[in-house]
Amino acid sequence: MERISAEAFEGIYSEYSDRIYGYIFLLVNEKEVAEDLTQETFIKAYKYMSQFNGESQIFTWLVRISRNVAIDYLRKKNRFKFFSIEKFQLQSDDDTPTEIMIKGEKITLLYEAIRHLKLSYQEVLILRKIKEFSIKETAEILNWNENKVKITTSRALAALKKELQKRGETHEELLRIR
């Protein structure tokens, strides 16, 4: 791909920046840091746009850059945090206030359990089950083959079930929550 115009890149930024920010926020759980890392992602994307060969979707390529930027940040900070559930809790108009509260508590329990898994399990669960990327897209983002994504997802779900059982939670009900 040739050098992209500033106007064309501005369109890419407008279309994808909120989604990239949301993904980064899931990893770092800090608003200001997520904003900074989102900017860093797009600076790198602009700088290396000529290397984008179109083999994947532009969004998948941006998520891969944002993942690398976030992981670099987390390594420097020597920690990995999960995310606050309040920002991502979707409510149905049909739910009563009590149902909303119960669902929120269950989602919080689920995310707390995920936070205790190893990083590769957290990443694959975020990408596959929370952000709903396909196996192929997840493989591209993580730089894994598709078989590794399938195996790691299966192992991550098994580890999550074990973690939920350890906490005395009914995992079948918790894993169905959206």
From TrEMBL:
<dbReference type="InterPro" id="IPR013249">
    <property type="entry name" value="RNA_pol_sigma70_r4_t2"/>
</dbReference>
<dbReference type="InterPro" id="IPR013325">
    <property type="entry name" value="RNA_pol_sigma_r2"/>
</dbReference>
<dbReference type="GO" id="GO:0016987">
    <property type="term" value="F:sigma factor activity"/>
</dbReference>
<dbReference type="InterPro" id="IPR039425">
    <property type="entry name" value="RNA_pol_sigma-70-like"/>
</dbReference>
<dbReference type="GO" id="GO:0003677">
    <property type="term" value="F:DNA binding"/>
</dbReference>
<dbReference type="GO" id="GO:0006352">
    <property type="term" value="P:DNA-templated transcription initiation"/>
</dbReference>
<feature type="domain" description="RNA polymerase sigma factor 70 region 4 type 2">
    <location>
        <begin position="109"/>
        <end position="160"/>
    </location>
</feature>
<feature type="domain" description="RNA polymerase sigma-70 region 2">
    <location>
        <begin position="12"/>
        <end position="79"/>
    </location>
</feature>
<dbReference type="Pfam" id="PF04542">
    <property type="entry name" value="Sigma70_r2"/>
</dbReference>
<keyword id="KW-0804">Transcription</keyword>
<dbReference type="InterPro" id="IPR014284">
    <property type="entry name" value="RNA_pol_sigma-70_dom"/>
</dbReference>
<dbReference type="InterPro" id="IPR007627">
    <property type="entry name" value="RNA_pol_sigma70_r2"/>
</dbReference>
<protein>
    <recommendedName>
        <fullName>RNA polymerase sigma factor</fullName>
    </recommendedName>
</protein>
<keyword id="KW-0731">Sigma factor</keyword>
<dbReference type="GO" id="GO:0006950">
    <property type="term" value="P:response to stress"/>
</dbReference>
<dbReference type="Pfam" id="PF08281">
    <property type="entry name" value="Sigma70_r4_2"/>
</dbReference>
<dbReference type="InterPro" id="IPR013324">
    <property type="entry name" value="RNA_pol_sigma_r3/r4-like"/>
</dbReference>
<keyword id="KW-0805">Transcription regulation</keyword>
<keyword id="KW-0238">DNA-binding</keyword>
<dbReference type="InterPro" id="IPR000838">
    <property type="entry name" value="RNA_pol_sigma70_ECF_CS"/>
</dbReference>
<comment type="similarity">
    <text>Belongs to the sigma-70 factor family. ECF subfamily.</text>
</comment>
<dbReference type="InterPro" id="IPR036388">
    <property type="entry name" value="WH-like_DNA-bd_sf"/>
</dbReference>
